[in-house]
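Quick check before the chapter quiz. The format below is the same one you will see on the exam, so make sure you can read both the input and the output lines.
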Amino acid sequence: MGEERKRSPLPSQRRGKRHWPASVGLALVSRGKHVMIRDTMNVRMIRRRCFRVAVSPLLMLCLWLPGYPTLAQTADAFLAGHTKACPDCALERAPLKRRDLSEADLSGANLVGAVLHRARLMRAKFTNANLTDANLNKTDLKNASLARAKLERAMLYEADLSAADLSGANLTEAKMQKARLVRAKLDGAQMPEAILTGARLDDASLRGANLSAANLVEATLRRANLEGANLNNAGLVDAALREANLKGANLSEADLFGADLSGANLAGADLSEARLSRAILTGAVLDGANLRGALMPDGSVHD
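Here is the expected output.
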């Protein structure tokens, strides 16, 4: 037999600093041959398994998603009338005129510019929905939830919002002529420059609401709660505010010509520079009210 060849050093001996994982099997092939690594394929398999373990949550998500309808599919089903539940759906400029959507769930939906003219929306959920520039004229929104909804420049002419929840809603420049808001909740609502001529807000709650420069000509707010509301420069000509709570309200520069404030609570209210010509103040509480520069019912200017 020829001179026996010396065994080749193991990889860990040849490369000092590098060590193979203990899980990788190494087969030493003797009988004069070099040491061969039989499990090259096993090494690759282990590496792939490690990668799969690392991304397993993502893989699970990918496997889970196809089993559920996408938002686009839900929106299509909603528009086709197959469902009334479409939260967070994209429904910009959706044609929903005269649709019966009573008790529908459209929370968080994007309804910018949507047409809901004369739609039936009793007890519908629009919480956090975006209804900017939407057409809601003559809609039935009794007992609907519109808390924190965006309704900038929305059209709500003659809409019935009786007992609806609009707390924290943004109604900036909304057009609400002759809207019915009896017992509606508008606490903290943003309504600057809103048009509410002839609107009915009897027994409504508007605590802390912002109605600066709003048009409330001939609106009725009997027994309405406007405590701490901002009515600076608001137009309240011939408005009915009998027994309304206006404690601490800001009515500076407001136009209250011919307004009925009999029995109203104006304690601590700011009426500076307000116009109270021909206003009815019979039985009104004015304790601590600021009337500096106000034009009083008798035509005099308050010191």
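If your answer matched, good. Confidence is low (pLDDT under 50) at residues 1-6, 10-18, 20-41, 53-68.
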